[in-house]
Each structure stands twice: as C-alpha cells, then as structure tokens.
Amino acid sequence: MTITAPQDGRLFPVHFAATFTATAIDNVDGDLGAALVWTSDRDGQLGTGRSITTSSLSVGDHRITASVTNSLGTAGSASITVTVGNGAPKVKITAPADGSGVDEGTTVTFTGTASDPEDGDLTPAIAWASDLQGALGTGGTVSVRLTAVGIHHITATAADSGGQTRAASITLTVYAAPPVLTIVSPADGFSTSGSVALTGTAVDFKDGDRSSAIRWSSNAAGSLGTGATVTAPRLAAGRHVITASVTDSDGLTATKTITIGVGNAAPRVTITQPLDGSSAPAGTPLTFQATAIDGIDGNVTARISWVSDLNGPIGTGGSIATSNLARGTHVITAQVADSSGLTGSTFVIVTITPGSTSNNRAPQVTIAAPASGSQLPVGSSVTFTGTAIDEAGDLSANLAWVSSLDGVIGTGRSFTTSTLSAGTHRIMATVSDSAGLVGSATIAVTVSGGGTSFPAVADAYTDANTATQSTNFGTATILRLWNQPVDRIYLRFTVSGLPAGPVARAIVRLTTTSAVNSGSDSGGEIHTVSAPWDELTLNHLNKPVLDTAVLSAVAGPIVPSQTIDYDVSAAVTGNGTYDFALKTLSTDRAEFTSREGGTGAPQLIVFRDAPTATNPTVHIAAPADGTMVGAGTAIGFTATATDPQDGNISSSLTWRSDRDGLLGTGPSVTATLSLGSHVITATARDSAGTTAADLIHVTVGSGAPTVTIAAPANTGSETFGRPVAFIGSATDVPDGDLSFSLQWTSSIDGPIGTGPSFTKRLSAGTHTITASVTDSDHNTGSASITFQVTSTRVGYEDFSYGPSIDVNLDKATATKAQSKLWFVDNTWWGVLFNAPKSEYHIHRMDLATQTWIDTGVAVDDRGKSRSDVLWDAQGGKLYIASRYGFSVSPPQNRLYRYTYFAGAQTWALDDGFPVNLDGGGCEALTIAKDSTGTLWIAYMVNGQL
Known about the structure:
It is a single chain. The protein is mostly beta strands. It has nine domains: 83 residues, Immunoglobulins (Immunoglobulin-like), CATH 2.60.40.10; 86 residues, Sandwich (Immunoglobulin-like), CATH 2.60.40.10; 84 residues, Immunoglobulins (Immunoglobulin-like, Sandwich), CATH 2.60.40.10; 87 residues, Immunoglobulins (Immunoglobulin-like), CATH 2.60.40; 85 residues, Immunoglobulins (Immunoglobulin-like); 157 residues, Jelly Rolls; 84 residues, Immunoglobulin-like (Sandwich), CATH 2.60.40; 85 residues, Immunoglobulin-like, CATH 2.60.40.10; and more. Helix content is 0%, strand content 55%. It is elongated and about 185 Å long. The two termini are 97 Å apart. The relative contact order is 0.06.
C-alpha cells in the first residue's frame, strides 16, 4: 500500500478541496486500487477508490488511512497526517546584511520577501520598523535615511488574511559621521606653474553645508587658507601634499589629500596678428600684436620683444608697427622673459615681396638731434644725429647734411660742428636708395651772435629762521635757496652798452658751490622784483614781494659745481637795471656762489637777434633730383642764384659731389661722375660772404649692376652655430631692381643663398662674403665683405682641464664619462653646479637666450660629489646616481629618483629618496637600465668593479 498524494504533514486551508491518491498491489488479487477505503480519524469514512477529493475535512489534524482486504481476507493499509486550518506567513530580510553599519544620515535600502500558504505573496505588505527610529515604511523595498545613532533592531513583519503574523529581524549600527568632504579641484597629480586654485565641498548631516569651513594646507608651505575656494599664489617649486580638512559641531573631522606639483613654466606667448604665412609688398606698414601671460608674473605683454631673423630687433610691447622690413622671408619672433629669466616665445613667418614699382618707398629719414627750433650761440658745438631706414636696410651711414646757409656741413649717421654761421639755418638730412628714390628730413636751427655778460651789481639771500630773520647776508660768499625755513635769493644786474635792437635771449647764470651738500632735487624758479631792496639791509623781515609771473624754472636735480641757466628773456629788452629773485618749494637746500664768492658769481648774459636774413637763393634747374644715368655719361648741371642785395650771383656757384668732390663753378658745368649715388650741391656766396645752397641726388649706373650689402656689417663677427642675416640690394640701369636675382657665396662655404635676404649658419673662420648679380646685358656687378665666425672650445677630449678649472675640485666635469643632460618635454635639462650654494641643482636650457636656468631643485648638497643621470622614459622616472669622492671622509654613494610634473615643468624628489648605495665612495660611477627593466649601477672602488 502506498499513498502517493498529498505529502505527509501537508497543511490545507479550511474548505480546501484536497485530493488523496494511493496504490494497492496484491500478489494474489493484483491491483486492488479500486477497492481502497479512505477514512479520517476525525471525520470517519471519506470515500472509496483509487483517488478521492474532499473539501469537507474538519479543522484540525487528521490521520488519513487508505485500507483494502484481498480475497483471502488479508487487510492492508497506509496512513498520512494532514492538517486543515490557517497557516502563518514566512518572512525573510534579504538586505542589508545582519550586523552591518552605516554613517548617520545615510539612506539605507531594505529589501525582503513574505509568503503565506493561503494568501500567497505578502511581500508588498511587509511592515518595516526600527526600535530607535520607529516605522520605516511598507513593501518589499524601502529606502530610509537613518538619523538615530546607535544599534537599530530592524524588524520586517507580515500578516495573512487569517490573522497569522510572522516577523524577521536584523541589527544595523548607525555611526556618528564627520562631514562628507570632496576636493573638487585640482585633480590628484595636477601640476602647474604659478598660482593654484583649491576648491572643495563639505556637507554635514546635522550642520549642512560646511564648505566655507574647509581648511587647506600644504606639507611644504603650511596653512594656505580657509574656505570653499582658496588661491595659493606662490607655492614653492616641488611636490606638495595638499590637505583639506573640516570639522562639524560634534567635533568630528573629515580629511582628504591630493598631491600636486608646482614649478615655473615659461610665459605663454600668442601672436594674434599677422597670421602665420602672411605676405606684404615692400614698404607696406605691418602691425604685429601679441599677448604674453606668465603663471607667476601674470600679464607680461608689455615686455614682449619682437625680433626678425633678418632685420634683428624691430620693437617692444604688445603691439608694434613697422614698414621697414627687408624684402624676403622673415621669421618674426615674439619673446618675453619672466622674473626668473625663463623665456617664452612664438613666431610667425612673414614674406616681404618686391611689390610694384609704386610700392618702392623713399628711405625714411629722421633727425634725432638737435631738436628743431634749437637756438645756439655762435661758436657753440652741436651734434647732428639722424637715421635713414629703407626696405634694403639701414642707410644712415649715407646721410648727407646740408645747411641753407652754409651748404654741406657733414655726412653720415652723426657728426659734430661748431662752425655754423649766425642766422636761421634750414638743416636737411637726405639719402637716396639703390633705386634713386630720395628721403629727407628738415629742422630749423638758429645761431645767434655771441652773448654779452653782465655781472651782478648786488646779491643777497634771506633766511626765515627765527634766529636769523633780521640778519643781512649781503656780503656772504654764498646764496642759499630753501623752503624749510624759507631762504630766497635776490639779484640785481645793470645792462649797458647794447646797441638798439631786439634781444634774442637772456639768461641768469648761477653756479652751485663745490660743497658736497650744495646740490638739490630742484633748482627753483625765477621771478622779477619790482619793489626796491638794498643789498646791505635786506633781510627776511623787510624782503620785497616777488612779482607773480614765473619767468622760468629748473626742475632739477642739480649737483655741486654745476652751472645752471634761468631763462629771463621775457623780462630783458635792452639796456637798464633788472631785479630778480629765486624761490623754491624744495626742502633740499641748494647753495650757489655769490658775487663775493669769486669764480662762478651770478651773471646776466644777453644774446642779440641775428641780423635780418639776406641770404642768396639757389635753385638747381637740371638735372632733376633722382636722375639715373649710365656709366661714363657726361651730365650737364645748371642752376640759378639770386641775392637780395647783389642780384644775380649765379657766377659764384660752386658745384660739388659728395663722392667726387669739386665739379666746377658757374651757372652751368658738365661732369662725368663716378659710379654710385651722388649728392650734388650748388653753393652761392654773395658780396657779404653769406652763402646758400641747393642739392639733388644723381645715381650713376654702369655696364654692371650696383650691388650693396646692408648686412652683415663689413668686418663683423658672430659665434659659431648662430645664424647670420644677409641683406643686400642690386640696381641696374636700365634693368632696375635686381635684388631678387642676387647670388651669395662664401670663400669657405661656397654658395650660401640667393635673393635680397636670408639667414645662414657659417663655418668657423674668416669668410669673404660676395653678393653678385648679372643684368640683361650679361654684365655682372658684385660687392664683398669680410666676416668672422668664431668658435669656442667647450670641452677637453684628452681629460685635461683648462687654466681656469680647479683640477682638485673639478666641478665642471669628471675624469670618467658621465651623463649630465637629458631631454624631456621638448626641453634640455642638466645637473649643474650652483656656485653660491656649493651644491648641485637641476637646470633647464632656455633656448631663446641659450642660457641655463636654475630650477632650484637640489640634487646633492655635497659640492665635491659627481653624478650620472638616467631618464627612464618608459617608467617616467629620472634617476641620478651621485658618488662622493673616495678620498673624502665619510665616503658615501647615493641614488636619487625624481618625478616630472609636466604642467609645472619641474621635478620633485620621490618619497624615500635618496637612498645610500652599498660600497661607500668610489672613483667612478654610471647608471643604466637593461632591456628587462632592471636598473644597474656600476662603480669602481679601489680598482674593482
């Protein structure tokens, strides 16, 4: 007998239709299943047959029996137990884990399941509760922010429709928590040059936003400030561990750290105008604009220097304009150095094309000195200085200077003369370019007759000091000028003997004494005095009032034994007596020599107007200014000269060439000029000896073109390895400008370039540089210069040392081969000696200036140490093995390892370094890494490797 269903112990709800099934097999009668009788020990017989279904079982536990009797009367049975009634639900918590913990204010998600035999899935009805926080919510998943600190007993409860309840529970610990702190920026590993902005957030469950209370510090620089954002303007170069910390009202502190690198990067220079690759015809004004920002110095745009590889320096500042670039292709560099000497630069390529003939501009001539309108006494020495710039380069050396009164007075960039005649001169500086175009500038200079000097007939000073207010200083040998207390100077001059006529200029001349304290930061101001005063009775109490108008002032400073002139032209009109007084606002006392003091006594110097001009007028009628003729051509020169007194004085004309000298006299001459550009002057002289002149420019061509080398200068020099700029021009009659056909050669290097301009690095030695060109008639013209390229010996391949090297200290190198340099981030780096500190530092090469800049990153503080360097590009580490001389006690070798911070362009020593190397000091040491990545350091001690 076997009851196959239901299972023993099955629970059925009330009125549930339960099906009972069994089998009965007999060895005599066979299958007796149809004869089975089903009974309950509570309800009696339930039915017969192989399977029955009933829903009328009473509530309670039933023992269900299936029995049968075979034909022989033998009975068999099988029993199971079932229960009829309401079963309790089953509840399970699936998350979080029992015994886990969270910080206060954390949102925790609780999940669980619940099922009931009668009602099925009761998961949505689970009720969650905490013994510390009360009801938490209902459902299979509940998210709750736990705020009560302590151990929570979390209960999940489910109840079925019959009132049966079951529960599951876990424990969960809620901890008191510090604020949630986040460093927003910079990121860990950040590197920079200059200031660093630190930003963070801090949120506390109880206190809310605590970002403003974040404390920032550096392990190297200490406290950096407090707040959500703090800017550290000038952190020292190197590695910084930045710590952010914040504390809440419960005293709980949160801390976060990052590591950054700080260094000094070169300024960032950006050229905004013109565009790279731009071109413009020769003579076109070009504007160059750029900006420069440095991480430490800030905006350094104003310090930008502009350099052309052909023309050299062309200006400074954020914006410049020039129209004088030589024809050809220029590399225009904008560069600027920061306060540590590190240079940033960028460049654009600009091509200056020949342009049309109309674009060939006359040279730009500027007279720098003297100023136009200057007035000079006869015989005064005056220096004339000017510049002449052309597309082909600097033509200042070719300037010709002509006076409207005295004719040609000088040539070149600068000259000095003291022979200008009296009168108003119209001074013209002129020059012509290779194409015959003429540039000029003009100033006016007035030379007055000699001045007449009149000594002071009375002088005195007054002193407001209480003790000397009533004291007279009329016989003193000095005159004092001061404003603390008030000291004033009174002067009287008598002018006589001047012929009638206007006065050109009048000055009062005083001289400071030789005393070391006689100078002052101001020379004061001079006034006229209308009220009477007496030299021997004048004092502070009775001094006259100064007239209001200031005649002139000397701003200063003035120094001992200096002559100072005060212009009083507005007050002096001729013969008569003149009273003056000086006062000052300066508290720095000045002291002058009085008329009783001897040499340097006060003087009034009067200059008369020059006579009314009666100069001749000269006009060259032919040839025209700028004429170009072929070689050997006879040129006819014609001019006229008239004079207000003498009439036609053309016969007095004298013709001269600045190259060939005297050409002839009279109104017309004929001359055959030498090759080149000539300044032709025609000068006339009247019966009173007064002269006047006119000038023109004439260019004489030849069978061959005229070639000019503007750069480099003849007999100039440059160091080996540096580029040299070559600029030249070539003109021809009748081919005109042949500059772009120039061929350049060196006596050492052979052909070196073509055209009007280029740059080239030359071999060491003395070069003969020749620029040549051939015209359409197959005639060749050329020009040559000599140029020296010097070389400097920088090493000693035989391990000997120069006379300036201390062999014992030997800080320049080592007797064994060792690496000192490495190349990272497009920059050369090196371990070089810092003499003031007598230790080794990492340096960087500033390519723009070709100088080594100390980064301040120390390597070995032992001045007699030597090192070998290895840059491990694959591992991103710099290794420096440093040996300390074997004879030095105590000997010790060291290994240093550095990390490179690209954004800061600096190096930082890694934690744990340096480390000592076994073996002590040694005679030689080298470091390398093999193909397996193993680092090897080999060194010699007492001859053993």
